[in-house]
Every structure is written in C-alpha cells, then in structure tokens.
Write a structure and sequence with these properties.
The protein has three helices and three strands, in the order αββαβα. With 90 residues, the chain is α+β, with helices and mostly antiparallel strands.
C-alpha cells in the first residue's frame, strides 16, 4: 500500500466528517497503520472514526493489501479510558 494514497483517502474521509488528520503512523514491517483525527468545533465521535476506517477498507482490499488499521481521536489515552470504564462499572 502506498502511504500517499492512504493519506489522501484518510484526509478526504476525515474532511467529509469535518475532521482533520492529525497523525498517520506507519509500521511497514507489520503493515500496521494508526490514524489519529481531530475536530476543532466539537469532539470526535465514534461514528467519525468508523467513517474514516470504512473509507480505508473500501479503498484498499484487505485480501490483497494485508494490513491492520486503527483510527482514533485525540483525547484521553488508553489508560485514562480504562480508568473511566472502571469508575463507570463501580
């Protein structure tokens, strides 16, 4: 998969949801791609991340391009999210 093609797909999909691409990290050895998006006017929602993820899936066939993809937003990190979930469950 060409990184510039992926970047273009992600930027266009994010823009359709009024978001911007903050970071696109590549681990070429394992074909792992991590996308981070943000929005100034309001928080990024799960639907925004799903939209960008699906746009990439539509553009790049995983049967041909063996890759893993994560789309997330700026905000709380994984540890903060785990702590929040523990608090909610209590």
């Amino acid at each position: 998969m060409k990184q510039e093609e992926l970047r273009k797909v992600v930027q266009e999909a994010a823009a359709q949801r009024s978001c911007t691409l903050v970071e696109l990290a590549f681990n070429d050895d394992d074909n792992i791609f991590e996308v981070t998006i943000d929005r100034e006017s309001s928080p990024v929602e799960l639907a925004d991340c799903e939209f960008v993820h699906r746009a990439v899936l539509d553009a790049f066939d995983r049967n041909i391009e063996d890759y893993a993809l994560t789309v997330s937003s700026l905000g709380i990190d994984a540890e903060e999210a785990d702590e929040l979930l523990k608090t909610i469950n209590e």
